[in-house]
Amino acid sequence: MGMCFGVRDALQVADEVEEPETVTIHGELVHNEVVLDALKQRGFHMADEVDRSALPETESVLITAHGVSERERARLAKRRKALIDTTCPLVRLVHEAAQKLRREERFVIVLGRPGHVEVEGVVGDLDDYAVVYHADDVCEWDLSRLGVICQSTMPPADAELLLALIRERNPRADVRFVDTICYPTRARQEAITEMLGQVEAVVVVGGINSNNTCQLVDRVRSRGLPAFHVQTADDLDSTWFTEFERVGLTAGTSTPGAVIDEVHEQLVAMRSAV
Which structural domain, as residue segments, surrounds residue 48? Predict the structure, then answer.
């Protein structure tokens, strides 16, 4: 559980910036409010993640771990912005897979959350595509060649179901699937699945806007267990746990280890106080 190497490396790059006030982070470096507050306190400027159309005023622009499209890179370079790139290598693989499928003249289908910054970066270099997140998003496309990829934090089980539905609804199409789910996401999904057979409830630590953290919450609740999504130890409420003897703890890939430790310590203190 907790911080993946992509997030860790992005934060290390940010830590090495000597004059943060001269740099605009192009969105949220990671989807974790504790981390974002620390970056603001250091003096970094931050662009709105939902609408990044406005040109940053600073000379340097830090590309987040979620990446951006090549078109967006070109726009920033054209305005002579110096780019500090912290794109996760595993997100780059998603971009590369999408472009390879495009060159094969396939209609690209991205399994992921519509509007998520990573997904927006991938489809930003495509002219024809579809984003599929729910079964209702799957169409009968009147096309002979389809290419399917995944947002890097898509739950593997959800991707498998959606892929099967795409094949079912497009039986005459040549469907090529490239599995671009990142290893950290897959490992955390497997870990939470194993944990669910051993606990009565789960505390999930991570940012409110963190896709992979929300997926962990959804995974717990899909098994009929209570999931308590917190950002810090201050969010914990001892009354949540009065009916449970065994409580699990997990965290999203952008959650700092220190935050996880504080939540764990607080949970232990609550248990001792009972």
Answer: 5-88
